Protein 1
Amino acid sequence: MASIHSIFALSVLSIASASAAMHNLTSYGAGFLDPTIIPSAGGFAICIQGDIPVTASAQNVRLNYTEPANQLSVTNTILEYLQANTTLPETVLGTAANISGTYNINSKLCLPSTQTANSTTIQILTHGVAFDKSYWDFYSSDYSYVDAAALAGYTTFSYDRLGNGKSSHPDPIQVVQTPLEKEILHELIQMLRAGSIGATAFENVVGVGHSFGSALTVSNTVDYPEDLDAAVLTGFSIDSSGKPVFVAGLGLDIAANNNPTRFGSLPNGYLISSTVSNNQFGFFRAPNFDPLALWAAEATKQTFALGELFTNSLLGGIATKFTGPIDVVNGENDVPACNGNCLVPTNAAAAVIRALYPAASNSSQYYTAPGTGHGLNLHFTAPVAYQHILNFLAANNL
Ligand SMILES: *[C@@H]1O[C@H](CO)[C@@H](O)[C@H](O)[C@H]1NC(C)=O
Ligand SMILES: *[C@@H]1O[C@H](CO)[C@@H](O)[C@H](O)[C@H]1NC(C)=O
Ligand SMILES: *[C@@H]1O[C@H](CO)[C@@H](O)[C@H](O)[C@H]1NC(C)=O
Ligand SMILES: *[C@@H]1O[C@H](CO)[C@@H](O)[C@H](O)[C@H]1NC(C)=O
Ligand SMILES: *[C@@H]1O[C@H](CO)[C@@H](O)[C@H](O)[C@H]1NC(C)=O
Ligand SMILES: *[C@@H]1O[C@H](CO)[C@@H](O)[C@H](O)[C@H]1NC(C)=O
């Protein structure tokens, strides 16, 4: 067994070192504080990873909510949040509160390792709740969108959202909120266009999101219609009927209690799904996944912040000024996006384009991956979904 793994590791490393000679990695490390060079999961990309300081300002909301003292208080908050005719959101959402700061955003710039990178187009990948940027480069090339994109010649930029993974973890109630995260995405896009990341001024930027990351990407197309040349929204719909089932099904724990080794230093406003079964419920659909992928997701699961839960309603809007093409890609059995069935009453992916993108290019597309849950990239169907996305981009000359 060990030999299979070491042969695999060797070949990944040899592809990676061959490609180190092809690209000037010193120059691609520009903008990172502490760049390290690592191969992608399948070795088809060579990546520069490290912190990028991002300065952003936003209008957050003062939340009338103090840090929960214990798990009883967290569970009670979720009960109040989900109860019929809840008044919790209006009690909690206060007045506008300006916020600004410089946050370390841990990021990964990945170049194709088997061919010359096309430095015209970059894809910015924004992950959803319960994951960090590794969602896009999950533990083998079968699941890695970064590898699939690299094989098609694309450079990708993924990052841990604020309060996630190796990025800064500020106050999870007053600071980690959707307005600030939206501005951080906007700033990163400006930096990619200006050449301040990787010493390459990318002319075309494609936004690719998953779930909450798709909601941020949509908000970007609403507020800054010039930022992106195209947007790919995965695990996303305009139907919120599955959200309560999803939130309840995660069985939210205080992250510091759930896993003191990984999260012991975080304040109680950082929450996490409870057990591997809760993870399965929210993100997987059998028999379309390998149980090992579920266990890997559980071992690397990530937190989300109460500030994100309470300000979720501030995201979105109709992108009346966005004229680029949109691609919406869902798993057929996505729980939060579709309450477990994305084909009733109509195709949920098609509905997004009709409802939110009146001015989008008529070359927009959508795709529903059969028998697949919310964690699309962790299912056997991932390669087919990736091919759909990459074909969509090629059809739009990106
Ligand atoms: C690589 O990039 C660095 C920084 O931009 C530059 O100083 C160096 O000369 C480049 N090396 C080659 C071989 O082009
Ligand atoms: C409670 O919610 C239901 C369903 O959304 C709505 O029809 C009803 O008007 C609400 N009642 C009050 C008192 O707000
Ligand atoms: C803040 O929340 C408390 C309940 O937790 C409520 O009694 C109070 O009226 C709220 N304050 C504002 C300004 O909404
Ligand atoms: C918040 O910032 C906006 C501009 O973004 C400004 O108009 C407003 O006066 C600021 N409010 C406060 C309380 O500083
Ligand atoms: C899409 O738009 C282009 C240019 O605006 C137009 O030529 C083409 O006929 C349209 N195609 C469809 C299927 O509507
Ligand atoms: C790079 O991609 C752009 C489209 O984004 C395309 O026009 C250009 O021909 C490509 N360049 C190379 C060298 O493949």
Note: The chain is about 35% helix and 20% strand.
Protein 2
Amino acid sequence: MKAHFFSLLLASFLKSRTDAAWCYNSEMSCTSTCTGPEFWSNMSNSECNGLSQSPINIVTRKTEQDPDLTPIQLIKYQESHSWNIRNSGKSVQVNIPHGPLISGGKLKTFYRAVQFHLHWGKNGSPGSEHTVDGEQYPMELHIVHIKQQYTSLAEALRDPTGLAVLGFFYEMSVNNNRNYDPISSALNKIIETGANTTIPNMTLASVIPPQETLTNYFRYQGSLTTPNCAESVVWTVFESTIPISISQLSEFSKLKFQDGNPLTYNYRSVQPLNSRKVYRSGSDAVLASAALLAATVLVSITLSQSG
Ligand SMILES: *[C@@H]1O[C@H](CO)[C@@H](O)[C@H](O)[C@H]1NC(C)=O
Ligand SMILES: *[C@@H]1O[C@H](CO)[C@@H](O)[C@H](O)[C@H]1NC(C)=O
Ligand SMILES: *[C@@H]1O[C@H](CO)[C@@H](O)[C@H](O)[C@H]1NC(C)=O
Ligand SMILES: [Zn+2]
């Protein structure tokens, strides 16, 4: 009886520990009771200990080329709308109520955009979630889409391919990226956790690299990178990067966590690949340019013969 009572007590102790809100290591302090990454897997309904977790380190020489990974079709990405942008206490999140869509690139159906958010380091130090051959970029953009047939994220999370997330890396540039001016000015108004404001007029296309540069990407099956880490994401991580200046990057580090400390290092560390494979799109760049060179030589021979 005593032992039973004790185990009940232990269970309730563990429960109370692991039901505390999740947080990043950068948010933990001596006084906080939040659940850091080490214990995300102990939270209720957690899949954070699964075998198909995200993010991962992409080892390019181990990726397998798949010619069926054609360019992703971006539908209504050019439509201009006003956006609600919010300091979620974990990131900056922009909700997308207007339903731009993506298809193609081996996605089985249309997926509708629902929100985008970012992960960063501190004042431009490394902060992306995915890494490529061990390189971590200063920031990463995630545009979250759900299968068109679903009306909520919760519904999509029960489907192993319910979500399609497009991931983009940022790379430090000397000049400011003018496309990010609307976001920069909004950040000043959402310093505190929970604050939100409106971006009057912006397109989704303006926050990503030009569409013609998006043919090269990586594809793998993974998870959400925050609890409950549901394994229901078809990941598409693009090679082409978004330029951003150090001063623009630093503006993200001025935001605050719930406790008032700087909202920095809001990324999850890379997870084991286990038995998964990472695929890469399109034609091999080296082979493509070699073929182009051969074609050019052929044309000039033909021309010189005919002339
Ligand atoms: C957390 O879960 C792991 C297994 O996933 C277990 O080994 C560990 O004891 C748990 N820790 C706590 C504090 O519940
Ligand atoms: C935005 O903030 C206002 C308070 O300033 C609040 O009433 C509203 O619910 C918030 N909206 C969103 C979408 O968070
Ligand atoms: C939004 O911007 C686009 C071009 O970027 C412009 O054509 C359109 O008139 C603007 N709409 C509003 C409501 O300001
Ligand atoms: Zn994310």
Note: The chain has two domains: 1-44, 48-298.
